Amino acid sequence: MNSSVRRLDHEVSPDQLRAYLEHNQWFEDGKIRSVATIWHRRDNEDAEVILPLSYVKDYRQRFRDALASIASFENRPVSEVVSEVKRLSANVVTIRVVHDDTSDGTIPINDGVLLIAKAKDLLSAAARSLYAKRKQFTRGAPKEAKDYLDTLLLGQTEIGSYVVNVIAPVQAIADGNNVMATNPLAQAITSNLIAGLSALEKATATYEEMGDLVVFDEAVLAGASSNMCDALLGFSGEKRNRAFEVTVTMAPVPLFETKPAKFMFDGKYVDTLEKASGYYKGDYILPGRQLTGYITKLSRPKEETSGTITIDSTLGNVDRKVQVELTGDDYHQAVVAHDNSKLVRVEGDVHIKSKSAQLLNPKNFGVIEIEDLL
Questions:
Q1: What does the alpha-carbon distance between residue 317 and residue 342 come to, in Å, rounded to a whole number?
Q2: Under a CB-based contact definition with an 8 Å cutoff, are residues 287 and 360 in contact?
Q3: 3-class SS at 26?
């Protein structure tokens, strides 16, 4: 047995292998004194696995024999068995990129690098929103969460457009005796990821009906953030031109069968994610709005026919000072309205930022007379 195969047995524990056997319809059918358990199958009387207990003298060799027996029955290499055992005791996030240029299982290198980086960012966003619900996180994850994120594994890529698997361990081998320690953050982070993705999916559908980015506020309470949106956007590539899907499969638990949660992101969904990310960052556009309010500031350079006015207006129940660029007669009307403390109105797209707001493509500027209000 070569050294690479010898190293594989250190990657899984007896508890993990036992869980794998149970999951794949093997059953414990006896013991060899107090040193090993015997496993058989109901559909094949000749199949047998001897699983040693961790304290026996020749444990490592006997454990390798058990792996070899399983590999022989399944007719595949020991390395594939070990990978499957590890996946069974972990949560798996599968990202599948769908585009004409990925149909053969390859992807442009820049987008491949971005995909892998954003895969970790996605888990990081889910981890950070466990501790606080915010629209945007500007600091890294807490140390405990960061330490767990550093245990993530990148699984083998698959054919099927372009598929990447991120393996998030639920358990880790704690010591040389293969004593298993469960990390409580593992399931919490993955559950929070599913909740955040579900909330974004729901908010996106509502946004398509209402056209109001405010619907994304509720998703924050479920774990969504600009960080999560940006990670997802990275899966669509540098040009944001690829559809993708994210499937989250949680490790099975005793007596319960977990179903994978799948989320589809087509081109329209990607566009909405970009808007949601900007909204969470306080940098977004509200299209087709009419502003009404009083002019509080006028500014026009000398020798210029156009100038900037500032209107106190209300957008989405929030009072804002919105800057509007006006030309010619419109600016003259604004000066008169300001001098006479009259209300004005104007239409356009409002570009909202964290500390400012500006009307884009202004049109239909006018003064509101008293009779207009009656």
A1: 22
A2: no
A3: strand
- Classify 2 as helix, strand or coil: coil
HSE-up of 146 (CA within 13 Å, CB side)? Answer: 5
pLDDT for position 353 = 87
Structure tokens at 29: 């059918």
**Strand intervals (E) in 130-235:** 153-154, 158-159, 162-169, 171-173, 180-182
Pull the structure tokens for residue 317: 């129940």
CA 122 to chain CA centroid, nearest Å: 4
**359, 345 in Cβ contact below 8 A?**
no
Q: Which two tokens stand for residue 189?
A: 């982070």
Q: Which helix (H) or strand (E) holds 357?
A: strand 357-367
pLDDT digits (tens, 9 = 90+) for 20-54: 898 889 999 999 988 999 999 999 988 999 999 88
Is the pLDDT confidence value at 348 over 90? yes
Domains and CATH numbers, the chain: 4-76 (no CATH), 91-281 (no CATH), 285-372 (2.40.50.140)
Find out whether 219 and 281 touch, Cβ atoms under 8 Å: no
- Per-residue CA distances from 210 to 179, 268, 270 (Å): 53, 15, 17
Per-residue pLDDT tens digits for 308-333: 999 999 887 889 999 999 988 999 99
Indicate if the pLDDT at residue 175 is higher than 60: no
- Asked if the model's pLDDT at residue 56 lies above 60, the reply is yes
